[in-house]
Amino acid sequence: MDHRLIELLVCPVCKGPLQLQRDEQQLAVELQCPADRLGFPIRDGIPVMLEGEARLLDEPAPATQPTAQPTEQAG
């Protein structure tokens, strides 16, 4: 999944930033919204950004690991 695309996507519920989660093979599997505790699946390389398709992050997840996110600098 293109990193530039991920930077453009926001949570459809709160419009907040998303974090990309990858599996053991470094394949993108989910976009997570930490504010709403929702995980949006990535199927065939396409993010499914529908609230009804999201899972609560408190539920068991596929094996994922967070990727490094750019940090914002206060100015």
UniProtKB/TrEMBL annotation:
InterPro entries: Trm112-like. Gene3D superfamilies: 2.20.25.10. Belongs to the UPF0434 family. HAMAP family: UPF0434. This is UPF0434 protein AACH11_18290. It comes from Pseudaquabacterium rugosum.
